[in-house]
Amino acid sequence: MTDASAPALFTWEFAADPYPAYAWLREHAPVHRTTLPSGVEAWLVTRYPDARQALADARLSKNPVHHSERAHAKGKVGIPGERSADLMTHLLNIDPPDHTRLRRLVSKAFTPRRVAEFAPRVTELTNRLIDSFAARGEADLIHEFAFPLPIYAICDLLGVPAEDQDDFRDWAGMMIRHGGGPRGGVARSVKKMRAYLLELIHRKRAQLGDDLISALIRASDHGEHLTENEAAAMAFILLFAGFETTVNLIGNGTYALLRDPGQRRLLQDSVGRGETDLLATAVEELLRYDGPVELATWRFATEPLTIGGRSIGTGDPVLVVLAAADRDPERFAGPDTLDLARRDNPHLGFGHGIHYCLGAPLARLEGQTALATLLTRLPDLQLAVDPEELRWRGGLIMRGLRTLPVSFTAVR
Ligand code: HEM
Asked: One of this protein's Pfam families, by short name (predicted)?
């Protein structure tokens, strides 16, 4: 059995560069049973066709009640801190028909048009953040830029008043810092966020505005509305799903550009000419090349099934490794090369099937605006440390840098 000689997974070296290990798995053990750092046993799916099929397979449930070990009850799967709260009923934890109903309702509120109208605000936020450190000539792009941008953006969209947004920054900071670590602080932050959101929803119900929370309250489907708990869970998952992912898109994306001067120059010149085509394909390529979501969120087999020739038992967890599938040489030409102009790029960075990322239009807007503004305003942006010194976060699902120290000369 080939799996016995599999490379070590989930070590520090692996976190710094998981791609060689994923290449080995794709070739020798494309559906691989492993023990995760939490002790939970799970299948890793690494080839593109298997990954795509698994993401859309209705026999793989998102609901942790289907896990044979019921590890969710022990806090080993799912979002930290969500267990005791009513936040469980969110899109990433449910299956049809509940998923279909909730997703339809939220889609009526969180429309591509609402996101498009938000573009000037994202530009303004991006510039404001750059203003806050530009004069210094150096910054940590994760803490001072990539991290606050999506938090303020989502808070603005939801309609969280400006004076409360720094609370969200603190709570989110706690969640990202301790993502896989101590549960106490994270659980407290989640609890505070939930209490705040419930109160806000209550207040907005009395006086609806044109923000996303008001739209969630207003949204109806065949006369059906979201309950206050459902609206709170929805606002929470928008924050949760849209936050660390976007931090990592900006962080991993900027890092990849800084390490490839030729590609960076192409993009910088194109942005300088006011073009948007290359910027759009660049963000897709960065999502493919080193995307924010390394492994798709949990799935559990509701009946025995076969993936890539391996038998998966009822109740087994299946983790689709998006980062591995998106480097599959059977699907992508020169998969380990960053090619910002890549056109044939059906990457799985936003998932696939009914759980396909609901926030993709917002993520694209934030990613494109952040990169274009950075390259324009800090044209000589460069890494301020040796790449060897950079540390990656150790979480299971996400892939992202802890810090990204840079230096530059700012222009207005
Ligand atoms: C789902 C990636 C940003 C909201 C997903 C999934 C992926 C993903 C891979 C599917 C997970 C699975 O099937 O297990 C990303 C990436 C982002 C990003 C790479 C940034 C670059 C956002 C933003 C929001 C958001 C900004 C909202 C504000 C959601 C929601 C779901 C989701 C609500 C669940 C959809 C469902 O289950 O029907 N995302 N996401 N995401 N994403 Fe995103």
From this structure: p450
Give yes or no for a contact between 58 and 32, defined as CB atoms under 8 angstroms apart.
Answer: no
Reported as a single tens digit per residue, the pLDDT across 128-165 is 999 999 999 999 999 999 999 999 999 999 999 999 99
In short, whether 307's Cβ falls inside 6 Å of ligand 1 is no
Domains of the chain from N-terminus onward:
2-407 (1.10.630.10)
| Nearest by Cα to 246 from 302, 291, 195, 216 | 291
Partner residues linked to 383 by β-bridges: 406
SS in 3 state form for 29-57? CCEEEEECCCCCEEEEECCHHHHHHHHCC
> What values do phi and psi take at 138, rounded to 5?
-155, 155
- ipTM of the shown complex: 0.99
Kindly report the protein residue whose alpha carbon is nearest to atom 3 of ligand 1.
242
- Cβ of residue 110 lying under 6 Å from some atom of ligand 1: no
**Whole-angstrom Cα distance, residue 66 to residue 90?**
16
Pocket test for ligand 1, best of 211, 245, 320 (most atoms within 8 A of CB): 245
Structural contact between residues 308 and 45, judged by C-beta atoms closer than 8 angstroms? yes
Question: Lowest-confidence range among 27-41, 77-91, 194-208, 358-372?
Answer: 77-91
Percent of the chain, pLDDT > 90? 73
The β-bridge relationship of strands 317-320 and 41-45 is parallel
Tens of pLDDT, residues 47-89: 999 999 999 999 999 998 898 776 555 555 665 555 545 666 7
pTM equals: 0.94
Helices (H), 29-164: 48-55, 98-109, 112-117, 119-134, 141, 148-158
Question: Cα–Cα distance between 380 and 232 in angstroms, integer?
Answer: 43
Q: For residue 146, which of 160, 125, 167, 162 has the smallest C-alpha distance?
A: 125
For residue 216, which of 226, 202, 207 has the smallest C-alpha distance?
226
Ligand 1 atom with least separation from CA of 239: 28
Using DSSP's 3-state secondary structure scheme, residue 121 falls into helix
In this prediction, residue 220 has a pLDDT band, given cuts at 50, 70 and 90, of confident
Q: What whole-number distance in Å separates Cα of residue 313 and Cα of residue 302? A: 8
Contact assessment for residue 300 and residue 317, using Cβ atoms and an 8 Å cutoff: yes
